[in-house]
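Student: Send me a single protein entry containing the residue sequence and its fold in token form, directly below this note:

Tutor:
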Amino acid sequence: MSDIRVVLADDHPVVRAGLAALLGSMAGIEVVLQRPDVAMLDLQMPGQDGFAATRQITRAAPDVAVLVLTMFDDDDSVFAAMRAGARGYVVKGAEQEEIGRAIRAVASGQAIFGPGVAQRVLRFFATPAPAVNPFPDLTTREREILDLLAAAMPNSMIATRLGLSPKTVANHLSSIFTKLQVADRAQAILRARDAGLGVRQDSP
């Protein structure tokens, strides 16, 4: 099996030389200047930051795996690197064994993160996403009415359910149609149901 070819990109010559020496001592890994299997990047570099470099590499050479090796371990940096296309993220100061394992993992198509970073990623995906309001222009009352409308309730039943007069319900519906930019009741119901409204309501 051929060696994994790694190219290094770091703005500190001493760090770059140290990494080259470290990787050169590992079995099965070769530091190269071109045609790499893995690009190991720092995020903070002059001219072009690591995020832009990652996007460029993944777009121009999708077979090259990007492994971020950086001092930054904040959530914004981690997830920005992931969105840019990085397959791995390791914080500087990691042990030689951890760096070698990360290189081999991304070269084989896996995604890998250092222990501390991995915990942040797991917490992020374990946290429920905030609820999204599909119709932010509607008032709370208008949204309630639209929900009942999508449940196929007539105006009279909506009025009873919410303790409103039928005329007030009709006025709210007129405003709803305008805000949703729909022509009639049927179109409003379709929009509401597409957004997940109109779950069957209990009878009043």
Q: What stands out?
A: The CA atoms of residues 21 and 31 lie 9 Å apart.
